């Protein structure tokens, strides 16, 4: 039996290390760029409704007025969007849930009070491993099960939208995540629907402001900031 010389062993060792490096770098690159699906588009009023059809284009007549009490109903979604570096590759992580509740009070063209609550334990992304980290070490949903936003100032949309018209107002309120509350201001977009209206927004979030440590372990690093996205379908309350 022929002996393997030290030089040959060294050569095979170098080849093995090079192959491992190629798999370690090339594997994630191939998966992210050629196998993994693109992240869902940001939620907007152009997003198709989840659940029963609610857009005014369905042929049903939208309510004549919008004054009064409304509640978050079927077709609502909320979740997060954050950039990650996965083994040297840039990816966008998106998690969402339909487990959203809330209410809104409208007087004239103004939303004078309102809030919505998101069940964080029900948020799902395209990765079970990410979801486990999100519910556990990141958000600790057993202790802090919900994210809550509550208006602290009225939102003036300027007019009641007609048909498929979209109107915009600036919302200011308190956002509570992970047991920490901060005041936030962002744009709200609203549109009439067959049985009510839909409201969409995106809230920038700096994780440290809510006592959340951005994950950085095992080849995965998450940016220090992300967004809370929501698309709320309101029905008469």
Largest sheet: 8 strands, antiparallel, barrel
Written as H for each helix and E for each strand, in order along the chain, the element string is HEEEEEHEEEEEEE
Widest beta sheet: strand line-up: 1-4-5-6-8-9-10-12
Dominant shape: elongated
What value does the Rg take, in angstroms?
23 Å
* Number of helical segments with 4 or more residues: 2
Q: State the end-to-end CA separation.
A: 85 Å
Q: Which percent band covers the strand fraction?
A: 35-45%
The low-pLDDT segments are 18-23, 25-35, 51-62
Q: Give the beta-strand count.
A: 12
Content-based structural category: alpha+beta
Q: What is the overall pLDDT average?
A: 83
Which percent range fits the helix content? 10-25%
Description:
The protein is of the alpha+beta class. 17% of the residues lie in helices and 45% in strands. It has two helices and twelve strands; from the N terminus they run αβββββαβββββββ. Strands 1-4-5-6-8-9-10-12 form an eight-stranded antiparallel beta barrel. A hairpin with a 2-residue loop joins β9 and β10. The longest helix is centred in the N-terminal third of the chain and has 30 residues.
């Amino acid at each position: 039996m022929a002996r393997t010389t030290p030089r040959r062993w060294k050569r095979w060792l170098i080849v093995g290390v090079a192959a491992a490096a190629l798999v370690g770098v090339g594997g994630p690159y191939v998966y992210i760029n050629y196998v993994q699906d693109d992240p869902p588009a940001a939620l907007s009023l152009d997003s198709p409704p989840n659940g029963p059809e609610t857009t005014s284009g369905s042929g049903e007549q939208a309510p004549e007025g919008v004054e009064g009490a409304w509640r978050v109903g079927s077709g609502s979604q909320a979740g997060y969007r954050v950039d990650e570096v996965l083994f040297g590759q840039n990816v966008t992580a998106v998690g969402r849930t339909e487990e959203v509740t809330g209410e809104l009070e409208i007087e004239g063209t103004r939303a004078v009070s309102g809030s919505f609550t998101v069940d964080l334990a029900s948020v799902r992304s395209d990765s079970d491993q990410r979801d486990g980290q999100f519910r556990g070490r990141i958000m600790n949903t057993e202790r802090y099960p919900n994210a809550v936003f509550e208006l602290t100032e009225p939102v003036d949309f300027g007019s009641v939208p007609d048909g498929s018209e979209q109107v915009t107002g600036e919302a200011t309120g308190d956002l509570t995540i992970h047991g920490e509350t901060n005041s936030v201001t962002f744009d709200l977009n609203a549109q009439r629907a067959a049985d009510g209206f839909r409201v969409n927004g995106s809230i920038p979030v700096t994780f440290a402001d809510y006592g959340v440590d951005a994950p950085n372990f095992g080849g995965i690093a998450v940016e220090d900031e992300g967004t809370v996205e929501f698309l709320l379908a309101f029905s008469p309350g």
